[in-house]
Amino acid sequence: MFTTRPVGLEFLETAPLRLSFGGTLQASPKAVFDAIAHDVGSMPRWYGAVVSAEYGGGGSAYGVGTKRRVKLVGGVAFHEEVIVWDDPTRYGYRVERTTVPGIRAMAEEWAVVETPAGTRVVWTMAVDAARPTAVAFRSMAPGIAVATRRALGRLDRRLVGAG
């Protein structure tokens, strides 16, 4: 695995590459936040690119400083640390180590906002990467956008059906 440079919340605004994806759900902001932040193990059931997601260290209380591990289809893995946990509106983490070469620093944020149209979810990836890796991220953005819209649709169906 490759170790990345530690970054804080400011990196979500200042990264050389920022990609955002989102959608509007009918489920409540609290239900959406809980699914994204509290129940990371359910992520493979609604986000097809995710093979597994889990918190490290056991326990049931999570927050800033908690470690996460995520594996994607194709063998990509991320070891992360939660850097923001503002229940139910904002959840984010930085990548500490990854199998992806060329990533110098990376953080992600899920923003959950109640609107008149429903619950708006925006997932932002902030990346500092070597040129070939940055180009790859940019070229994958349209596919990630489609995958995210589909994933959020599946999540919404799970949450609305559960409620």
Which characteristics define this entry?
single chain, 163 residues, alpha+beta, 4 helices, 8 strands
Following the backbone from N to C, one meets helices and strands in this order, namely: EHEHHEEEEEEH
Query: Judging from the principal axes of the Cα atoms, what is the shape?
Result: globular
- Report the sheet with the most strands, covering strand number, pairing sense and barrel closure: 8 strands, antiparallel
Compute the average pLDDT.
95
Low-confidence stretches: none
What is the CA–CA distance across the termini?
40 Å
Compute the number of strand runs. Answer: 8
Task: Please indicate the percent range of residues in DSSP E strands (runs of 2 or more).
Answer: 35-45%
Task: Work out the radius of gyration.
Answer: 15 Å
The structural class is: alpha+beta
- Please give the count of helices: 4
**Helix fraction by DSSP (H/I, runs of at least 4):** 25-40%
